């Protein structure tokens, strides 16, 4: 049975919404982007939402707005996708990598140990859609001794008066922590809307703004939207109107805007996301029921202690195996045309970061999580028959390699 890992959810409503955009005569940033921003704002509870062309661009733009530069440090997990670190580097700061916890996410104690006067931001990552411990992280940056250590290097930092927390919510749209949905747990959160995510615009991201006073999030939305359009005082939609051609460039912006033809995909999906999310949860529960009977399986966190996942991927870990055995199991699974993945290769194991001096030996839990992990497909289009095929194939592959 041929089972892909994460195909996009494309039904008639998606096709109709995209066709409507194409036939409208306007395909770049316009009314559908604004409608998608409003839908994400309603879903997340964020005060303001700005859609951009990728998570990475959104993170770079946010860090540049913060004013980070040479000598500044941004704490990130060693266990994440490269974009988390690359955004920090492109913004001009230094990524300070810290170890993970056993739940895949960044260790709060490791964050505490890494804070210095140069720390300007923390970028926790919700691995596989499982929320980080945001209560603890937000309490940490508010502690008097941590605030006393803070040394602002920009006007924005001066106004905030503490380390900013920017949630890498690439995987976690629809997850929640206590009574707060992803997108509202931190100062700023950024969703990915990439092709393999729970909600997609093919390529895209969404910046959720929840800055505390004295910041005005509506004003900040306007500022960042301007930055996303090269700091051009009129967007292309406005310029296209009769007599509306004249514009100005008022700052050093970026080309980061989302197009309407992309937003149309996400707009159709997000309107039915509760149904899509419920199906993902159902698949998770089927996996849990099967693998909980296997003494060699470690189930991923999904719902506990007031937190609930977005059920992005099922991050299965297998006990007492080597990295080489894990890879052999994946090869056996692939022979049955079942696509699985690994989330993620820790950053210090990648050539770029290894050559910058990061060493995987400094992040033992990140490596421990990685070398046992196999990500199983989890998306609404999976049938019950396909889900059963996945679990049977994984179990058979385990027995082939290990026993």
Overview of the structural elements:
With 403 residues, this protein is an alpha/beta fold. 42% of the residues lie in helices and 13% in strands. The protein contains 16 helices and 14 strands. Strands 1-9-8-5-4-2-3 form a seven-stranded mixed sheet, sandwiched between helices. It has a four-stranded antiparallel sheet with strand order 7-6-12-11, with no helix packed on it. A three-stranded antiparallel sheet has the order 10-13-14. β2, α4 and β3 (94-98) form a beta-alpha-beta unit. α1 packs antiparallel against α11. The relative contact order is 0.17. The model has no long low-confidence stretch (mean pLDDT 96).
Defining key terms:
403 residues; alpha/beta; seven-stranded mixed β-sheet; four-stranded antiparallel β-sheet; 16 helices; 14 strands
How would the blueprint of this fold be written?
Layout: H1 12-23, H2 31-44, E1 48-52, H3 55-66, E2 73-77, H4 82-91, E3 94-98, H5 108-114, E4 119-122, H6 134-142, H7 144-149, H8 155-160, E5 164-168, E6 176-177, E7 180-181, E8 188-192, E9 205-209, H9 217-228, H10 236-239, H11 260-270, H12 273-291, E10 297-298, E11 303-304, E12 307-308, E13 314-318, H13 323-335, H14 351-355, H15 364-372, E14 373-376, H16 384-402
Parallel strand pairs: 2-3, 2-4, 4-5, 5-8
Antiparallel strand pairs: 1-9, 6-7, 6-12, 8-9, 10-13, 11-12, 13-14
Helix pairs in contact: 1-11, 2-11, 3-4, 12-16, 13-16
């Amino acid at each position: 049975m041929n089972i892909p890992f994460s195909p996009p959810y494309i039904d008639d409503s998606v096709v109709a919404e995209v066709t409507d955009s194409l036939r409208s005569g306007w395909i770049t940033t316009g009314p559908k982007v604004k409608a998608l921003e409003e839908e994400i704002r309603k879903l997340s509870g964020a005060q303001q939402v700005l859609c951009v062309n990728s998570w990475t661009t959104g993170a770079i733009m946010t860090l540049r707005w913060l004013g980070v530069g040479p000598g500044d440090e941004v704490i990130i997990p060693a266990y994440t996708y490269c974009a988390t670190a690359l955004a920090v580097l492109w913004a001009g700061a230094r990524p300070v990598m810290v170890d993970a916890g056993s739940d895949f996410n960044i260790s709060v104690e490791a964050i505490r140990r890494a804070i210095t006067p140069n720390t300007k931001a923390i970028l926790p990552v919700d691995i596989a859609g499982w929320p980080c411990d945001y209560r603890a992280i937000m309490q940490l940056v508010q502690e008097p001794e941590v605030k006393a250590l803070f040394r602002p290097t920009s006007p924005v930092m001066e106004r905030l008066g503490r380390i900013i927390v920017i949630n890498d919510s690439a995987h976690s749209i629809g997850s929640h922590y206590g009574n707060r949905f992803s997108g509202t747990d931190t100062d700023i959160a950024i969703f990915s809307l990439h092709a393999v995510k729970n909600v997609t615009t093919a390529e895209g991201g969404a910046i959720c703004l929840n800055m505390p006073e004295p910041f005005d999030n509506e004003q900040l939305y306007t500022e960042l939207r301007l930055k996303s359009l090269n700091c051009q005082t009129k967007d292309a939609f406005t310029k296209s109107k009769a007599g509306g051609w004249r514009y100005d460039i008022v700052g050093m912006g970026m080309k980061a805007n989302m197009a309407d033809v992309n937003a149309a995909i996400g707009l159709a999906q997000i309107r039915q996301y509760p149904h899509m999310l419920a199906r993902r949860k159902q698949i998770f529960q089927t996996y849990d029921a099967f693998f909980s009977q296997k003494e060699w399986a470690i189930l991923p966190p999904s719902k506990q202690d007031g937190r609930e996942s977005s059920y992005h991927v099922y991050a299965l870990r297998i006990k007492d195996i080597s990295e080489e055995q894990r890879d052999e199991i994946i090869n056996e699974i692939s022979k049955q045309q079942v696509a699985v993945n690994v989330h993620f290769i820790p950053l210090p194991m990648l050539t770029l970061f290894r050559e910058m001096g990061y060493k995987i030996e400094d992040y033992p839990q990140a490596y421990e999580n990685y070398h046992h992990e196999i990500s199983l497909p989890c998306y609404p289009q999976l049938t019950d028959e396909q889900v059963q095929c996945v679990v049977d194939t994984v179990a058979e592959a385990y027995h082939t390699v290990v026993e």
